[in-house]
């Protein structure tokens, strides 16, 4: 048996988890897919808010403490929903890696060139 890389493993684990709770993108019609995209993006927003709450962001409050352990858990929760979203959009681990790499190169170019003007076309190839 060929060993999977870590991103492949994450995608496979997430697929199994989603199937366990009854979410199977391969059987969805367009309306259901859109609803699940909305569900996942809302969940991502909520998990992001929970991550923010792990960080002492209230500059006026002296009681807050940084919760490193919970911050790490919230990042993993975000990853669960991000991978689910990618899968719902038909992306494989390879697709995700390739798109990440292309977008990374766009970001590097923007930084190198000063990013003085927004160009909506610089990501069309991703």
What does this structure look like?
- The chain is mostly helical and 126 residues long.
- Helix content is 63%, strand content 0%.
- It is globular.
Shape: globular
| Terminal residue distance | 32 Å
Structural class call reads mainly alpha
Overall pLDDT: 94
Instruction: Summarize the helix and strand pattern as letters.
Output: HHHH
Q: What percent of residues adopt helix (DSSP H or I)? A: 55-70%
Q: How much of the residues is beta strand, in percent? A: under 5%
Compute the gyration radius: what is it? 18 Å
Low-pLDDT runs of 5+ residues are: none
Count the DSSP helices.
Answer: 4
* E-strand count: 0
How can the largest sheet be summarized? none
Secondary-structure map:
Blueprint: H1 6-20, H2 30-53, H3 68-88, H4 93-112
Helix pairs in contact: 1-3, 2-3
Name the features.
single chain; 126 residues; globular; mainly alpha
